[in-house]
Specification:
By secondary structure, this protein is mainly α. The chain folds into 2 domains: 45 residues; 184 residues, hpI Integrase, Chain A, CATH 1.10.443. It is built from 12 helices and 3 strands. A hairpin with a 5-residue loop joins strand 2 and strand 3. Helix 3 crosses helix 8, helix 4 packs across helix 9 and helix 9 packs antiparallel against helix 10. It is elongated.
Length: 263
């Protein structure tokens, strides 16, 4: 075990897992007299824990994307389908940023899930747990703008309005039918708007989950309240939320130079 210290902790743990498996095999087939409880205890005490990576995302880039889509309501579109996609993408991105919803959760929302008076929705989230999602005034505004533009299409459906998806497809394949977007479409929305705002090189660096990171750090930056951030993000373990409670390198640089280079 001592010789493994030359390797990275993750590699060390891989070798130790193989070693434990080998001793388990010897013990199970009675090929050797092995004290398995002792083996496991030694491995547990000697193994190093792998380092935990802090969530990283380009905050300024995400805010640039939000600013771009926020201006879509001022645009004029020749094609109605293009207009609906723009308003949908605006509502989708702003809602992601201001609610912390996971991509599958936001794609599965129905119109009837949203309490438009209270500005909230009850969903079944990760682990089949019921959760309350709160919407900001700008996310509610963008959703209402989108649904208002979609009103004619929604009214032509043979289903009640509450059963219709909150975010719908607006492509030739869907035609005039209101069909829910898939998680793949949700990811493509982000890719397209990243490409539009930041260029091709940025595609893949920002995903729907980046907006969840943005949401959690926004709450922490504004309140410093770890428990509140945990509850709003719906993390079952506060240790997960704690990973976001760090200062970025830029913030550390700014704080350092403000202290020591004031003159």
């Amino acid at each position: 075990i001592a010789a493994l210290k030359a390797y990275a902790p993750a590699t060390e743990r891989l070798y130790l897992a193989a070693l434990t498996g080998f001793y388990t095999y010897l013990d199970a087939d009675r090929l050797a007299d092995v004290n398995m409880s002792r083996v496991k205890q030694i491995v547990k005490l000697r193994a190093r824990k792998t380092g935990q990576r802090l969530p990283q995302f380009p905050r300024e880039d995400i805010e640039a994307i939000i600013k771009t889509v926020d201006g879509y309501t001022k645009f004029s579109f020749d094609d109605e389908r293009e207009r609906l996609r723009a308003l949908r993408d605006q509502a989708f991105i702003i809602t992601l940023a201001d609610t912390g919803l996971r991509v599958h959760e936001i794609c599965e929302l129905r119109r009837g899930d949203v309490d438009w008076n209270e500005g909230r929705a009850v969903i079944i989230g990760k682990g089949d747990k019921e959760a309350v999602i709160r919407f900001s005034s700008r996310s509610m505004r963008s959703l209402k703008n989108y649904l208002s533009a979609r009103q004619k299409l929604d009214g032509a459906q043979s289903r009640p309005l509450p059963s219709l998806p909150l975010f719908a497809r607006h492509d030739r394949g869907a035609g005039k039918k209101i069909k829910p977007i898939s998680t793949a479409t949700g990811r493509n929305i982000i890719k397209d708007r990243v490409r539009q705002t930041l260029g091709e090189d940025a595609v893949g660096k920002i995903t729907p989950h980046s907006f969840r990171h943005y949401f959690v750090t926004t709450v922490l930056r504004a309140t410093g309240n770890l428990k509140m951030a945990q509850k709003l993000a719906r993390h079952s373990n506060i240790a997960v939320t704690q990973r976001y409670a760090h200062l970025s390198d830029d913030e550390l640089d700014k704080g350092y130079y403000e202290i020591f280079d004031r003159n």
